[in-house]
Amino acid sequence: MADDEDQQNLTDVESLADALLGAIRRDVDNDTSDAEASNIPDALVTTMSVLRQLGIEFVRRYHRLDIDSAAPDLDEPVLFVANHGFGGIFDLNVLAMGATLDGLELARPVTILTHQLAWTLKVGPLLEPLGARPASHESAREAFENGHHVVVLPGGDLDAAKTWEDRNRIVFGGRTGFARLALEFAVPVVPIVTAGAGESLLVLSSGERLAQALRLDKILRVKALPLSVSLPWGVNLGAVGMLPYLPLPTKLRTRVLAPMTPDPDEDADTYAERIQASMQQALDDMTENRRPLLG
Fold first, then answer.
1. Strand 189-195 and strand 202-205: pairing?
2. Please, what is the end-to-end C-alpha distance for the chain in angstroms?
3. pTM here?
4. In angstroms, rounded to a whole number, what is the distance separating the alpha carbons of residues 78 and 111?
5. What are the distances in angstroms from CA 106 to CA 115, 244, 264?
6. Which long-range CB contacts under 8 A does 51-60 form with residues at least 24 apart?
7. What are the structural domain ranges in the chain?
8. Deepest of 11, 58, 86, 127, by most Cβ within 10 A of its Cβ?
9. Are β-strands 253-256 and 189-195 bridged in parallel, bridged antiparallel, or unpaired?
10. Positive or negative, the Cα torsion across 66, 70, 74, 80?
11. Is the pLDDT assigned to residue 132 strictly greater than 70?
């Protein structure tokens, strides 16, 4: 009997390995054509594709990711608008979003508008094989002109540095540029909302006042410097989220909302407020009666 169980366990592991390798090969195949066009070394494409798929499998299994989508087949370019969980480069919401986009089986490439800080810290080029581009109007214009979908996380560092008390809030800080992009390029907005990442560590303060006092908003375009408690860093100021940390095994849930288009004569500010309100309502629904870590 023990031999049978061992054989079954071995079979399960082999099946998981085959599935993971297959997903990595698909990622590599899909990214190589873009890499050839932009002269990105094949080795970098392969490495980043492997790391991406490992991250996605991590949130699927360790964080028991559930995905619910109300989006139809997206044949034409859209603007995906997502919320942050915690952190910048290492944000569970970003990994959950990657798993979600994979599940949508999109026929078009995806460009992810990413904070300029990634290039300031010299890690931006490492993220480019995954579709990352500096968050700017020019990057969005180029992506839409090439027929890509575009992803933006409008809250940036403000949304990514929320305290424990605010973990279930979507904070865009009055930023409405994403709505202006959607209006200018006549593309619908598809919101992606993820709940749970704020429970992967304890954020004591967003550190907005400290960031302003240190003039980080002028030097690095960073408006928050969170004080957090995490593994293995303990009490830490600012680095967690830019450096990897061991997240607590909180359950993640992601919901893709139906595409949203502007009402007649609706301006960018009003459109942005309506999108954020819809996303907040979805997050409220997903976190109602939620228990930390257990989901």
1. unpaired
2. 36
3. 0.84
4. 11
5. 24, 29, 29
6. 52/27, 52/98, 52/130, 53/20, 53/23, 53/24, 53/27, 54/20, 55/95, 55/98, 56/23, 56/95, 56/98, 56/99, 56/102, 57/20, 57/23, 58/95, 59/92, 59/95, 59/96, 59/99, 59/252, 60/99
7. 2-287
8. 86
9. antiparallel
10. negative
11. yes
Residues 151 and 182: beta-carbon distance below 8 Å: no
pLDDT by residue (tens digit) across 146-188? 999 999 999 999 999 999 999 999 999 999 999 999 999 999 9
Tokens representing 263 are: 């009402």
d(CA 51, CA 31): 13
